[in-house]
């Protein structure tokens, strides 16, 4: 692997290495071992994941987008979507002058197009689409087991309400979950209510371990909280809005009566460079 440009960014401290690769000529298919080494916090640069910036047409994608977000977890695995990642991706596009922040930008992902709007306060609002609720499941840490709700927000989640966020322990190891229910793995959220329309959460992400924030996870938590609170828009015909505190910051999620989720949060590009990669 030779020399290439990169940037570092984060959305509520969920951090990413951004790899510009408009025409796919620099990184090709992006090797999983390379991603894992790059994301390793001791052997590599360190990040929760990689966002490769590819022109949609270079991949034959014709969905109204100009840019495709090729997201990879820290262990090199592919996921369908990354909610914090898509805000950081949009921040990178704006910073590079590749999109006009006066207009919402449709970004192509493996879970379809996610449109990002640029808010006057500098935050980003993502139309995260329509979630799916798939009933109850169980998650466990050590001897403790909790009932959880299976929610899909482009990727799979299990949302468990707990008495105290510390109940989830260190989250160094992946919590146990129903492997028949989630054959491709799962992101697991632990949640405590903080007040009306207000919760706090921790997350163990598939492929990345405990992270300081997860956008798709916050959306899954908003859905589970709304169902639990009897505030689901399908029942009330009114939007359900939740403030969600995560270790890395705050996300605001609204579940609209048309079924769509809107997530608002910050994103920042914090470093740029050219990397001569000698890893391995
Ligand atoms: N941190 C992301 C989610 C990234 C993907 C996830 N680990 C998976 O494998 O599904 C977010 O902000 O949504």
TrEMBL record:
Residues carrying the site annotation Could be important to modulate the pK values of the two catalytic cysteine residues: 157, 205
Keyword Cytoplasm: yes
Pathway: Amino-acid biosynthesis; L-lysine biosynthesis via DAP pathway; DL-2,6-diaminopimelate from LL-2,6-diaminopimelate: step 1/1
Catalytic activity line of the entry: (2S,6S)-2,6-diaminopimelate = meso-2,6-diaminopimelate
GO terms under cellular component: cytosol
GO molecular function, one term: diaminopimelate epimerase activity
Superkingdom, taxonomy of origin: Bacteria
Active site positions, chain numbering: 82, 82 (proton donor), 214 (proton acceptor)
UniProt-listed InterPro entries: DAP_epimerase_AS, DAP_epimerase_DapF
Gene3D superfamilies the UniProt entry points to: Diaminopimelate Epimerase, Chain A, domain 1
Protein name as it appears in the record: Diaminopimelate epimerase
